């Protein structure tokens, strides 16, 4: 399955923490268009509505997760450049995922397989600061 949207929360270089506890999962939460919401809900995937902290508007989101860190070549730009986890919230993304078992509360599980990021994307942690970027890539 492929789902398109805007990256909202990116936890791909380390596992996500929730209430101070490590979830043990690498996750990408994506803001969705009404069309993408309809596709997901048609497959039994539950989609949450949250308030966007930047705009104050209600948005529909879905989290995609994996137990294993994605290798850098599984995260590329649309034109094929390997970027690894160096993209951030606000980036246009396409997520390749697989369905898992259905959960009574969370619906069908969405297991992250690979990600395509727009060529023009928001920098991630490594790319957001020139000094840090140079240090980490030296």
Describe this structure in words.
With 138 residues, this protein is mainly beta. It is 12% helix and 43% strand. It is built from two helices and nine strands, in the order ββββαβββββα. The protein has helices at residues 34-42, 130-137, and strands at 2-11, 17-18, 21-22, 26-32, 48-51, 58-66, 75-77, 92-103, 107-117. The strands form two sheets. Strands 5-6-4-1-8-9-7 form a seven-stranded mixed β-sheet, covered by helices on one side. Strands 2-3 form a two-stranded antiparallel sheet. A hairpin with a 3-residue loop joins strand 8 and strand 9. The protein is globular. The chain starts with a strand and ends with a helix. The model has no long low-confidence stretch (mean pLDDT 89).
Write the layout of secondary structure elements.
Elements: E1 2-11, E2 17-18, E3 21-22, E4 26-32, H1 34-42, E5 48-51, E6 58-66, E7 75-77, E8 92-103, E9 107-117, H2 130-137
Parallel strand pairs: 7-9
Antiparallel strand pairs: 1-4, 1-8, 2-3, 4-6, 5-6, 8-9
Q: Give the overall form.
A: globular
Cα distance spanning the termini: 37 Å
Which secondary-structure class do the elements indicate?
mainly beta
Number of strands: 9
Q: Treating each run of at least 4 consecutive H or I residues as one helix, how many helices?
A: 2
Order of helices and strands: EEEEHEEEEEH
Please describe the biggest sheet, giving its number of strands, its sense, and whether it closes into a barrel. 7 strands, mixed
Instruction: Assign a percent range to the helix content.
Output: 10-25%
The chain-level mean pLDDT equals 89
Radius of gyration: 15 Å
